[in-house]
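pinned: reference chain
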Amino acid sequence: MSGTYPGEYRLVRVAPLEPAGSRDGSRRIAFAVDLDFGRVDEMTSVIRNTLHWHAPHALQIDLSRVGHLDCAGISGLLACQAEAAAIGCRLSVCHPRPIVARLLCLTGTFDALCGGGAGEASEAGL
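pinned: its structure tokens
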């Protein structure tokens, strides 16, 4: 994930959440790498930079292309979620692959990060 911010990284895309013309400033970050101990610092840096540069009202972390998430990645997401809440931004995870969603359920963090309940967990195949 090298590059300068703001913009795009090789394995990350930061984009407006709403169609062009939306003014609420919501953003989506789509990761396409494993989010584990070796990448947690880069992941949190991208999220924190997005919070700093864009000050979004809502920030979605798209995990549809993340094949592996470990406890360090989960801890990083939770820490960023708390930082986002402190500045009035709602950070949530969306589109986790079934294996990632299962880990979130097993660690008791699915509801906190995904913002859903049993309905969203069943959509993820759990």
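why pinned: The radius of gyration is 14 Å. The helical segments are 40-54, 71-86, 98-106, 110-114, 118-123.
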